[in-house]
Amino acid sequence: QASKEYYDQAIALQREMKDHVRLVSSLTGRAGIGMTMASLATLPVCSLEQAKADLLEALKIAEETGLITGKSWALYMQGMLDLVQGQFGTSRAKFLSGLKLATDVNHYEYMIANHFGIGALYLELTVPERARVHADSALQLAKGLHSQAMINYSVAVLAGAHIQLGEMTAAQSCLDKVLSIAASMDTIGKRYCWVRQVELALSRGEFGKVLDITERLIRSAPDMKSGSVIPYLWKIKADA
After folding, report:
1. From the centroid of its chain, how far is CA 37?
2. Weakest-pLDDT range from 83-87, 111-115, 156-160
3. DSSP letters along 40-88, please?
4. Which of these, 34, 43, 133, 196, could form a disulfide with 159 (CB 3.0-4.6 Å)?
């Protein structure tokens, strides 16, 4: 919620200043708060309608001003929104377009983001071999940038691919590089990795561990209110 409030202030100022470059970035950032794969581990903040409107405006500005990087970033976020709505065909098309734009200008951060998105998409489609390829590409680029946030996201998808392939040792090895018993749950990337640790524990029949980690994820979720539910975490508890 605090992030959204700061974006609201930034967007108002950028409109006033006609700062199109930063406005595209801020609109895309606001659209992404809690509306992407973070829904596995935290609550959404922005409405779907607001997110769609923000991204349409961001893309329009990027196209009018020739801002290639801004367009790549907005396409990635549109792909994520389509993904969580089950619109897999349009999601894939947007990720691929975003990846091509980022690759054309060697923008590694947005290359990572779109590789991650494609990997997450293939996980949803239960095509782990393809998910693993894109997750590994994202991870290697993220390591080159020393971006721990993007490393966490990439590891979460890569571990998920290993789990779907039945490669439990490989999945645990991935997670061990970013998690420890005392690892915090204070970022979306870390929480996404903890979700994978829960899935791995569930596959092993370690139900006490599943319930313990899931409860920690629920208790530490920001903006939780009485009666709030994070559906995927509740489902995991039910499975355990």
Report:
1. 4
2. 83-87
3. GTS---S-HHHHHHHHHHHHHHHHHHT-HHHHHHHHHHHHHHHHHTT-H
4. 196
In whole angstroms, what is the distance from residue 188 CA to residue 197 CA?
Answer: 14
Q: Which pLDDT band, with edges at 50, 70 and 90, does 224 fall under?
A: confident
Instruction: Report the alpha-carbon distance of residue 240 to residue 26 in Å, rounded.
Output: 40
pLDDT band at 116 (very low <50, low <70, confident <90, very high): very high
What is the rounded distance in angstroms from the CA atom of residue 189 to the CA atom of residue 195?
10
Which residue in this structure is represented by tokens 């599943």? 210
Q: Is the entire prediction scored with pTM above 0.85? A: yes
Q: Which run of H or of E encompasses 126?
A: none
Is residue 190's pLDDT more than 60? yes
Q: For residue 131, is pLDDT > 70?
A: yes
Is the Cβ–Cβ distance between 99 and 118 less than 8 Å?
Answer: yes
Own/partner pairs, 229-236, CB within 8 angstroms, 24+ separation: 230/39, 230/40, 230/41, 230/42, 230/43, 231/39, 232/39, 232/40, 232/41, 232/195, 233/40, 233/41, 233/195, 236/195, 236/198, 236/199, 236/202, 236/210
Q: Residue 108 is which amino acid?
A: Y
* Measured distance CA(87)–CA(80) in Å, rounded: 10
**CA-based nearest residue to 157, from 187, 129, 185, 186:** 129
Q: Which two tokens stand for residue 103?
A: 């690759």
Residue with tokens 């929104």: 81
Q: Which of 46-50, 61-65, 149-153 has the lowest mean pLDDT?
A: 46-50
